[in-house]
Amino acid sequence: MSNFEKVGGSFSLELTLDEAHILINLAEQLLELLGEGDFFHHYDTSDPLAQLLAMPSEIVTPEDPVLLRLLPNAYADPEAASDFRRYTEPALRSSKQRNLRIIREELAILVDGDHGGIIENLDGDIWLTALNDLRIALSVRLEINEGSFEKFELMPDSEPEKSVHAVYFWLGWLQGNLLDNL
Q: Which of 32, 39, 58, 155 has the fewest CB atoms below 10 angstroms from its CB?
């Protein structure tokens, strides 16, 4: 099974080729979701700071439940939530995209070699954050709750959703393994 190991100030990760492909696929799907659509309403040309920073005057609250979970409203009041989102969402999206791109590039080393193996010099914080985002995305799509593991164990192997649940629980194991090493 895949395993993180602390090596000096960084980490190494041993993966099979199939595991690397799964992680790349998940990262690419989430990158697509984080980048799709024009989430800006319009730019405020009367605000000099907004002009200087190319800051939108308003950002639409995501409708997709995964995006809403990854980019939540900070306030119940719609106006306050919109204002907060305006200042924070572009940087948050960018950070999530950057982390996913980094892990995708690091995983590509194994895939390009057409074999599993060990990738080294990994930044634990980047990997932890990216794994967390991938897990959150899957948990929303699968509607994970307290009884989900029991449901998973009772699923017949022929159930198409069983493999996706298995990936979700594997991501949790990977994340826990990395946390133990941090």
A: 32
Question: Residue 102 to residues 74, 135, 163: CA-CA distances in angstroms?
Answer: 27, 17, 25
Element (H, E) at 35: helix 17-35
Domain ranges of the chain: 3-181
Tell me the sheet residues that pair with 13: 4, 119
User: Which pTM does this prediction carry?
Assistant: 0.85
Residue 84 burial (C-beta neighbours within 10 Å; 0-12, 13-18, 19+) = middle
The token duo for 81 is 């939530």
Which pLDDT score is estimated for 63? 87
Tell the residue number behind the tokens 């133990």, with chain if given.
180
The pair of structure tokens assigned to 174 is 């990977």
Count Cβ atoms below 10 Å from residue 95 Cβ, excluding itself: 13
